[in-house]
C-alpha cells in the first residue's frame, strides 16, 4: 500500500480543534456543501477530509461495515478525485484532467445508499486544470442535495476565486512534535531516526514521508538555492534534475512549499504587500507546472522560468 493509498485507512492524528469545528457544523444541521481544507504540504489535509467523511458516513469505527468500506475504498457514497496515471507516458499526471472529474456526474445521479450523505473528496485540488476546475465549479454552483465536497490544497489562492467563494475555508495548523512522531512511527520510521525526522518535518510529517521516496537530491538543492535568491543554475545541476522523469514536478512542489511558507510568514509579520506577491508567485508557479506538463513543453526552459518566479523579490 502506497502512502497515498493508505490515507483512507490511517487514523487521523492531530487537528482536534478543526475536527471539532466540523463536527459542530454537522450537528447544527447547517452543514456547508463545500469545504476547502488548506495547509502546508504534508500536514494531513487529505487524512482530515477522510476523517470528516467517516463522520458523515457513520464509519468512525474502522471495524464497522461503513468503516471497513471506507478503508477498502468501496463505500458507495464516497468518491475520491485525484491525479491518475498517464498511460501514454507511463507516469503519474501532474494535473487533474476533465476525465478524472467526469465520474462525479455518475456518482451524483445515484441515490445515496441508506439515505446518507454523498461525499466527494478532491485531493490536491490545486492540480485541477482549467477544464476540470470549470466542471467542478458547475457542481459547486448547484450542489445536489445531501452532498458534501472536500477540496484539499496548500493555500486558497491556488484555486479559482469562483471556487473559493463557494467553499467554507478550514485551515489546518502544524502538528505537535509528539503527533508528528506518532505519524512517522506508524509509517515505519525507525525509533532512532525520529528526533531528526521530527525536526525536519516541522509539523508536517507528510513532507518527510514524501522526501524519503524521492531520489532527486538535485531538486532539493536547487529549490533551496532559488528560494534563497541564488539565480544561477549550473548546467550539471540542471542535467541532474531533469535526468529523472519527475524532477521538474519535484522542483515545483518544493518551490511551491517554500513560497507558501514565505507568504504565511510575511502575512504573520503584517507585511501584506510582500505576502501578496509571494502568493501570486505561488499561483504563477502552479500555472507554469500545469502548462508544461499539459503541452509537454521544454523543461529546461520551464525550470528557468520557475527559477525566475521563485527568486523574484
**Tally of individual helices:** 15
Strand order of the largest sheet: 2-5-6-1-7
Strand content: 5-15%
Overall mean pLDDT: 85
Percent helix, as a range, is 40-55%
Q: Give the CATH topology of the largest domain.
A: Rossmann fold
Give the topology string: H per helix, E per strand. Answer: HEHHEEEHHEHEHEHHHHHHHH
Radius of gyration: 20 Å
**How many discrete domains?**
2
Task: Give the distance, in angstroms, between the N- and C-terminal Cα atoms.
Answer: 42 Å
CATH superfamily of the largest domain: P-loop containing nucleotide triphosphate hydrolases
CATH A-level architecture of the largest domain: 3-Layer(aba) Sandwich
Shape: globular
Give the helix/strand class.
Answer: alpha/beta
Low-confidence stretches: 1-5
CATH class of the largest domain: Alpha Beta
Count of DSSP E strands?
7
Domain AAA+ ATPase: 31-175
Pfam families: DNA_pol3_delta2
Organism: Asaia krungthepensis NRIC 0535
InterPro entries: AAA+_ATPase, DNA_Rep/Repair_Clamp_Loader, P-loop_NTPase
